[in-house]
Amino acid sequence: MLVYAVVARGDQVLAEFSHSEVRIQETTVIRTVLQRINDEHKRNTFKYDDRHFFHCIVQDGICFLCQTGQEDAPRVVFHFLENISTQFMERYSHVAKKAHAFELNTEFSPLLQETMEYYNLHPADASRDKLDVVTKKVEQTKEVMLENIDKILERGEKIDMLVEKSEELNESAFTFQRSAKELKKTMLCKRIKTAICAFIVFLICVLFLSIVFCGGFAFKNCKSDDDDK
């Protein structure tokens, strides 16, 4: 059960509400807890002793604190704190950092009372909207994750296809390289054969011309006079 709620800047109370009269001892405990809270405690729970459980959220230097029993669900309590913080900042964000102690108590204390009573009477209904939002976000996140998984699987298939094509290209390149070497070797052999044939033809032509101009195979016309003597 929510028994006490306060809006404070540091240890300076701006507005508060309690279901029972706050005794001097209780006030001392609350001030002690407020002094422990700083901007780093964005969302926290404090156990002062077996009777005092405090929960708080801090927004823009303003602390929203409430006291509950041990049995209260943190989800409901923090939903209550978020509710009053939203209402307070919408009304007083422009004056909250300069307001004096209890300056906003007359206006905001009744709203604290109304909100606190509603959460005490209907804790499940009060936090259901928040739970629905969280559930919806979880479902949306789940859908996004499934879509991402599908995309990854599809991308994996495309990668497999690229790997296969790459392997095929490598094989084709190897085959082409081997064919090119064989063709080069074949062309070289043909060139050698052609050169040999050309050289043989050249020799035959020289021999033929020699026979024609020298008077036959005896080469009579090509012999010198000394050879005739």
From TrEMBL:
Coiled coil: none annotated. The chain crosses the membrane at residues 194-219. GO terms for biological process: protein transport; vesicle-mediated transport. It is found in: Endomembrane system. InterPro entries: Longin-like_dom_sf, Longin_dom, Synaptobrevin-like, Synaptobrevin-like_transport, V_SNARE_CC. Signal peptide: none annotated. Residues 130-190 form the V-SNARE coiled-coil homology domain. CDD domains: Longin, R-SNARE. Residues 6-112 form the Longin domain. It is a single-pass type IV membrane protein. Belongs to the synaptobrevin family. This is V-SNARE coiled-coil homology domain-containing protein. It comes from Octactis speculum. The lineage of its organism: Eukaryota, Sar, Stramenopiles, Ochrophyta, Dictyochophyceae.
